[in-house]
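Aim 2, interim progress. The first record below pairs a target sequence with its structure tokens.
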Amino acid sequence: MLREKIKTLSCYFTKTEILLWCISVTLIIISFLIFDRESILTLTASLIGVTSLIFNAKGNPLGQLLMILFSVLYGIISFAFAYYGEMITYLGMTAPMAAFALFSWLKNPYNGNKSEVKVNRLKTKEFVFMTALTAIITFVFFHILAAFHTASLIPSTISVTTSFLAVYLTFRRSAFFAAAYAANDVILIILWILAARSNTAYLSVVVCFLIFLVNDIYGFISWSKIQKRQESAL
């Protein structure tokens, strides 16, 4: 039974995707053994996160289910370093929006195939609405995070901005969601480099988001191809 499931997965993913996932997992484990060795929670979150990204790259709703779990774990990790912006963002926004995205993806399968979501091309009016809503969210969260004396206030606020864009675009099934997550990864890399100055164990988190960045870039490329294939079939 297990052998059959492994064979099915190996056929489902391309060789590039399997290689990307294997390299990602290996680097995460190596960085954990070098820089941390204690926080199993960080290791678990990283492995779940990178696995969710490879499913997201295929437009598979399972990726959103794993993202919910990752968001909860990452929120706990962020709380430990007083990155309240990250905690609030992932527990109060990313996790709930991932749940909505899971519902949206399951409700909109491509040609009845529940393992591939139908990619949506947003209209100009919605991009304008999204931009205005993002500006409001950024303004409000800046003052909330300032009140909580959040560490690294400006990068944390920018992280909220990119995170909101990412979860909104994910919910709306736009290929640009992966690009928004890639932008968010860059901000998170900066945040955790700052954190690593006082605790080198957080270097494993830096490596995690570097790997996430590569995976999100691949996700954007993959979704662009999926969108082109789906639209050409119309």
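The second target in this work package is listed in the same format:
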Amino acid sequence: MCNSKRWLKGLLGGAMCLTLIAVTKQDAEAGQSYEVGSYIVCTEDTNLFVLPDCNEGVVTPIAKNSIAVVVENDEIYTKVSCNGAEGYLYQEFIDYDAELIEAYKAELLAKSEDVRMMAAMIQCEAGNQEFEGQVAVGAVIMNRVKAPNYPNTIAEVLYQPNQFGPADSVLFASLLANDNIKDTCREAAKQAYTGVDNVGGALHFRRAGSREGLVIGSHVFY
């Protein structure tokens, strides 16, 4: 069945996972048809049959209640993007669960706002720096979120008294209100959020030359 499949041109981009698309379901002559780009839920612990051949390709375990994005429908399989992989799920193990999907969308929005807030702070602190320096500021923010002696959310870290000076500034408020954040700062925030740490776990930074530490651009990280 999968060997005779005609492939869709292009791959599903990561941004599609953040698109909040209304899901429609309709009966098909054979199998169940889901709107391409919509969310579905894996109803049981199962396997994702990864490209290029669902009969002979790599098998990736997918846990029950995992959320996937539909890429293509078929009589027996549905091609999806799930947990960073793209491949096929048997239709008998997928369904539309409104409650789980809405919770997933809410989680994505929360993550998106966290990254946007961090990007705005990166622009305030290092908007005139090279990209490496912008990532470095984001890494400090995330290192604090992970550290036991600091708050465990991005917002609380940024607004902690006497820590990030721009948090109470007109510039920071304007960037958030108008969403006119530089693309490089957004990308730096995304990288830091997903674990990139180019400052070796540093929890602080200040103007280069003010103390010893790792110098990146015009800041020293320690």
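The longest strand covers residues 67-73. This observation will shape the mutagenesis plan for the next reporting period.
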